[in-house]
Amino acid sequence: MEKKLLRFTVNEAPYEIYVNPKTLLVEAIRDHVGLTGTKRGCETVSCGACTVMVDGMAVKGCSVLAMQVDGMKITTVEGLEKNGKLDPIQTAFLDEGAFQCGFCTSGMLMSAKAFLDETPKPKDEMEIRRAMEGNLCRCTGYNAIIRAIDAVAKGNYREDKQ
Ligand code: FES
Ligand code: FES
Question: Where are the strands (E) in the chain, listed by range?
Answer without folding.
Answer: 4-10, 13-19, 51-54, 57-60, 73-75
